[in-house]
Predict the 3D structure of the following.
Amino acid sequence: MLLITIDKEIHPKTAIFQASMVKYRNYLLPCLYNLDIPPDNNGSERAIRNLKVKQKVSGQFKTGQSAFCIIRSVIDTLLKRKLEVLPYLTQIIKLQPG
């Protein structure tokens, strides 16, 4: 379908859309070529769920939202990589200047 010529005079918006599709065709469905890439964004949605629940329960963050997001991101990354959370957090804390 991307190879069919679309008349720019009759369907200008469709022609622009087709040009974009052709230009970015290698980025549109990378999950078809790389099986390590999931075909959905459920992992990303799960990653922010804890933050949204915390925000909803407390109504808002008064302080510490940046620290919470960093720690949550580290924990989520460790869990995705099937690594033990506590030893790595302990190691990170030891690296912090006192």
The chain has five helices and no strands. The mean pLDDT is 82. The chain has two domains: 1-39, 42-95. Residues 42-58 form the longest helix (17 residues).
